[in-house]
Amino acid sequence: MDKSSFADPKFIINGAMHDAQRHDSAHKHVTGSADYIDDLPEPVGLLHGALGLSDRAHAEIVSMDLSEVKATPGVVWVFTGKDVPGINDVSSNGSHDEPLLAEKKVEFHNQPIFAVIAETREIARRAARKARIEYRDLPHWSDIDGALANGSPLVIAPMTLQRGDPKAEMENAPRRLKSQMRIGGQEHFYLEGHIAMAIPGEDDEVTLWSSTQHPSEIQHIVGHVLDIPSNAVTVNVRRMGGGFGGKETQGNQFAALAAIAAKKLKRAIKFRPDRDEDMAATGKRHDFLVDYELGFDEDGRIQAVDATYAARCGFSSDLSGPVTDRALFHADSSYFYPHVHLASKPLKTHTVSNTAFRGFGGPQGMLGAERFIEEIAYAVDKDPLEIRKLNFYGQPGSGRTLTPYHQEVEGNIIARIVDELEESADYQARRNAIVEFNRNNRYIRKGIALTPVKFGISFTMTAFNQAGALVHVYQDGSIHLNHGGTEMGQGLYTKVAQVLADSFQVDIERVKITATTTGKVPNTSATAASSGSDLNGMAAYDAARQIKERLVAFAAEKWGVPPTDVVFLPNRVRVGDKEFAFPDFIKQAYFARVQLSAAGFYKTPKIHWDRAAGRGTPFYYYSYGAACSEVSIDTLTGEYMIERTDILHDVGRSLNPAIDLGQVEGAFVQGIGWLTTEELWWDDKGRLRTHAPSTYKIPLASDRPKIFNVQLAEWSENAEHTIGRSKAVGEPPFMLAISVLEAISMAIASVANYKACPRLDAPATPERVLMAVERMKKV
């Protein structure tokens, strides 16, 4: 076999890669046999933990009486921040601004102050409510308006992106407008809540099972709170019942609390908050307030953009820096801004610290850009799709390829995606029919919108763009796979197994997928930024390459043939004129003492970023897509229905079309929830009141479009050297749901005969839609 073929992940024979293989745990999910942490056999002597939470949004702790808590029958230990052996901090970015347990001051309602360890979970939870804590209240604000009014500090240094001379071009623009948009947050609402189980070992060792997207960070945090080295901490993750970013950093506190108690009491400890506590005490998607000024010409072509993105970040920095950065990175959506100034404003609020959520700030930035387009379209009396096309990034040489962060947009296929969807969805004829329908109907109005997606793929923190994998080939030809990515239902394990099966040309059933563990692959990055398959697939491929090179050298020497005559075929290996079944070939290699194990590694090339300068190449490539949605609204109640959605999405050369289609469909529905039904609300005491399914409304199956057509762009192939020439699929399709909000907006605009932009904020709840309808009646 020609060794040059090892170098290109596009080299495919057996077809395991790019096949529509089923999710490895799909049958377990539907039968209820998939083991999550709470399904594992409980160790003898297991104790349960519960959180003692604050009932103030911002206050000094004057005194704390835990005597009744400790006296509760069944309570084994109660501990506070003073009992933390190491550093009482679980901040993910080294800022030391997020105490594991608050000691002198609380900064949000339901902040953990102490922990209770008891014989049962129920005893621990009931005991935690018996604390007597005296507070001295301090001023608090829980939203962006309150933060701005009170001169709130920023949780992290802001970022600015600038290109050209936006101030001068704004003044010279034929048309200008200025406004703002409010964009709501979102609760992750994973099916499996946060959970951690710690089992103490000898000396300083501790083993944890944690529902986390970032095992290495849990390892790091637990080491710090226990004051032990990372090599004493092992973190295991087989699967999560959903993550969506909510388990990137937020699992830190539960794992750390469990580990402290386990080492102190020398017994296994489990922490599992209920849904209300989980929602109240863990972070969410950031709310944004976008203030913008636009300069454009009479045709609707953008000349200048000046926008500020203020975000509700919560009491600590968490991931607010990179989240608000990514919002700016995607404030251009798919559009070229000749002159632009963008600034972030990550505001401190007395609420739980917001965190990662699918899209990581990108959806908020992109939604703002689509509002810009909508504003311009109504100002010049044109179809928003026409304005979108007019302002798309161009092809190389057009002079319209440079982003606000000075990266060239290469491999741009957004125009083709949109054109194909416009035709297949019959957009123009349907829009004309809808305009006619609205003329003849007083109470029911319809809207349609076709919106694009351009999403940058890579961690903007360059160091995170690396991955490792460990591959063993056993004597019987079975293969053991372990890598740093975590499985949260998205099919990552299946995709990486496909890569390995394809590399060795064996059936995928021969590849054993094992739980992610810090004891096998060290220093892993979070499974986030849509990069799980890109990074871990390449790392597994690299491990397979090393083993195959050894096998080729062994066969060439043993049978006296050139290396090019050693060829891996489906489930067998040809050596010259001989053929061996794969297990027989591996057995012979073992007896010849060939190393059949390898640690693979991959780091994303070409990327670099200078945050202070606002310049660089933070993304390896872009994923594209488009959605066309049609809605109906009731102008008397504000209620609406999604009549039809057509999607064409770019995943490059799909590693697994079945899984990728599922990801596109699921992301779209989750995006619908963010933009329509899911509303977070804090009262005047800083208490989150939407903290359960009774008050927080995620989409139901009945909320999906009545007609739902989803296609992958089968002609697309990543121009960059990714695994199998595929593209990421986790986050980009989330923004396809913007088409629903834009369609609702068009339906509202019909009330005023499309004379004004409705300026519909998100989420577009029926109440908000009704208020927008009433505003349009006055235009």
From TrEMBL:
Q: Which domain of life is it from?
A: Bacteria
For activity, the cofactor(s) needed are: Mo-molybdopterin cytosine dinucleotide; Mo-molybdopterin; FAD; [2Fe-2S] cluster
Q: Name one GO molecular function term.
A: 2 iron, 2 sulfur cluster binding
Q: Which residues form the Aldehyde oxidase/xanthine dehydrogenase a/b hammerhead domain?
A: 31-139
Task: Give the EC number(s) under which this enzyme is classified.
Answer: 1.17.1.4
Q: Which Gene3D superfamilies match?
A: Aldehyde oxidase/xanthine dehydrogenase, a/b hammerhead (3.90.1170.50), Aldehyde oxidase/xanthine dehydrogenase, molybdopterin binding domain (3.30.365.10)
Tell me one Pfam family matched here: MoCoBD_2
Entry's InterPro entries?
A: Ald_Oxase/Xan_DH_a/b, Ald_Oxase/Xan_DH_a/b_sf, Ald_Oxase/xanthine_DH-like, AldOxase/xan_DH_MoCoBD1, AldOxase/xan_DH_MoCoBD2, AldOxase/xan_DH_Mopterin-bd_sf, Xanthine_DH_Mopterin-bd_su
- EC class, as a word, reads oxidoreductase
Read off the SUPFAM superfamilies from this record.
CO dehydrogenase molybdoprotein N-domain-like (SSF54665), Molybdenum cofactor-binding domain (SSF56003)
Q: Which UniProt keywords apply?
A: 2Fe-2S, Iron, Iron-sulfur, Metal-binding, Molybdenum, Oxidoreductase
Q: Which family does it belong to?
A: Belongs to the xanthine dehydrogenase family.
What name has this protein been given in UniProt? Xanthine dehydrogenase, molybdopterin binding subunit
